[in-house]
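Can't attach files on this board, so I'm pasting raw text. These are the components:
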Amino acid sequence: MRSPTAIDKPTGGAAIAVRDLSHWYGRGDARRQVLQDVELSIDPGEVVLLTGPSGCGKTTLLTLVGALRQVQAGSVQLFGSELLGAGRRERQQLRRRIGMIFQGHNLLRCLTAEQNVQMGADLLADLGYRARRDQAREWLRAVGLGDHLGKLPHDLSGGQKQRVAIARALAARPELLLADEPTAALDSRSGREVVDLLRRLAREQGCAVLMVTHDPRILDVADRLLRMEDGRLFDQDPEAR
Amino acid sequence: MVSRGLQTIAGIWRSRRIPLAWLLLTRQPMRLAVALAGIAFAGILMFMQLGFRDGLFEASVTVHKLFDADVVLLSPRTTSSIGMASFPRRRLVQTLADPDVIGISPVNWNLLLWRNPEARTTRSILTLGFEPDDPIFLDPSISSQARLLQNRGWVLFDERSRPEFGPVAAWLKQGRTVETEVSGERIRVAGLVSLGPSFGADGNMITSRETYQRLMPSSPPGSIELGLIRLRPGADPDAAVARLKRLLPGDVRVVTKAGFEELEKTYWRTSTAIGFIFTLGAGMGFVVGCVIVYQILYSDVSDHLPEYATLMAMGYRLPSLLGVVAREGLLLAVLGYLPAYVAGQGLYALVRSGTRLPVVMDPQRALLVFTMILVMCLGSAGLAMRRLGDADPAEIF
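---
Top answer:
C-alpha cells for the assembled complex are below.
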C-alpha cells in the first residue's frame, strides 16, 4: 500500500532529522520569516518538549515536521525520507506513520469513542475489520476508557476526549507522535494523567514524541527540553528550569 | 470461480471501514429529515408531473385500444378524436378487394350533447355508432350487449364516465329505467360498458348506426368517420396499408391500429402545450431537489471541515474523503427515493379514483425518476466536494 519511496526506513536512524530549516509566510513586502536555521533530531522512543512564547514558530515547526506543509528551505527527514520537494501524495503517505494530538481534541462528533479510535486503526490496511475494532477497544482500555466505548464525544469530559484522541493517534501505530498543547484545555490533574499516559504508551511503542506545551506542570516528562524564540531553537537544560 | 467470488466478497467485507457517510447522516437526524423531505418532495413532483403527462397521453387512446381491427381508414381531415371528419363509406367497401382483408366495419364517431337525467344539464359525450352485428370490440362484455342496440333509441353508457353525466350506472343497477336526451332526441340506456374517459371526452356512449343517424340527422347516411379493417390471421398490417394506399384514392387515409393510436397521441403531444407543461413541471422538481440537496451537503461539509482536515492530517487521502461525500449523496438518493416512490403510488391511486385517468406506476418512469434523483444527489455532492478543497490540515494545529 505504501509507496516504496516513502518506506525506506533507515537502520537505527533518527525519527526526525531537521537541518537548516527556514520558513517564511506571505509574499513580497509582507514576507516574514518564522523559522531560522532550525536544527533538530529526535530518536525513536525519545520524548521532546518544545516551549516558547506564542507566535515564535512552534506550531509552524510542528506542521512542517508533520508533513502538513511544504518545506521551503533546509532539510526535514522523516524516517529517512526527505520532505523538501516531496509531493502531496508522498506527504500524505508519510502522515500515516505520524500520530497527531491537537489542542482541541478534534474528534469526529458523529462517531462514538470506539469509532473515533477505529478511524485511526482503519489506516492499517493489512488488518481485518474485527482486528481493527478489537485494537480500537484495546487502546481505549489502555487509556482507561474501557467503560465509555459507545459514548459520543459530546457525552465525554475534556480529559476523556483528549484521552480518546491519544488512543486514536496511537491506534494507527505511529512511529512519531506530534502533540500541540494537549493539556491546554484540561485541569491540572487530568492534564498530568494525560501526559503520563502519553509518555508511557509512547515508550512502550518505541515512538518518538514531539510535544509543544506552555504548561509548566508537565515539563518533567521530557527526556529533552527545547525552547524556541523568534524562530530559533535552543536546547534548554531540564535541570535549569 | 464461485469460491473466488466469495473470497473477494469476504475480502471486501474484511477490509471495510467505519461507515462514515452513513454515520454523518444518521447522527444528525434533523438535517437528514430535511434532506429526505426535500428529495422526496422533488421525487413526488417528478412522479406526479410525468405521471399526469403519460396518463393523459395514454388516456387519449382508451377508446382506440378497444377496437378489434388491424388497419383503420380515416378522413385526411381528421386531426384527433375530437376532430373526426367523415369520408364516404364506399371507400371501406373497396378495401374488400384486397385478398388479406377478411372483415370491415363502418363506425360513426362524434361528440354529442348528453342531458344529465338528474340535473338536466348538458355535456359533450363521445358517441360511437356501429352495426350491432359487427364484432368491432375486443372486449366480449361489449359485444354481448350489442344485440340490445338493435332496438331503436337504445344506447350503452360508459360507467366510467365522469359523474357530471348523472347517476346513470347507479340507477341502472337499482333496476330503474334510465331515459334521457341526446341532441334533443329521446334515448334509453340499455346497459353499461367500461371504457374510461379520455382527453377529449369526459364520457362515452355506444349505439347503433341507425340510432346515430337519428341523433345526427345532418350526417349523410353514406358517410362514416372511422373504417375498421380486419386482416387474415398472420397478414402483415404494414404491407396491407401500403397496398390499400395504392388501391384507394387520396380522399381517405390508411393507417395501422398502432398508427391510429400514435396519431391521437401525437396530436395531444404536439398540438397542445400539455407535454411541455408537465415536462417543465418535472424539470422544476428536479431543480428544486438539486438546490435542497446541494444546500444540505454543502453545509454538512462546511460544518465538518475541521474534522475532514483532521482526517487528512491523520493520513486519509483526499479522494477517500471525497468518496465520503459521494456516498452521502448516494445514500440520500436511495433513502429519499423510497418515500417518493411510496407516496407516488398513493397519489397515483388518488388520481385514478379522482380523475379516472389511467395513471399507473410503470417501471420505466420509476427508473427515470430514480435516475434523476441519483443525478440530482450525486451532482450536488460533486459540487459540495469543492468545499472539501478548503480543508487545510496545516490550519488545524
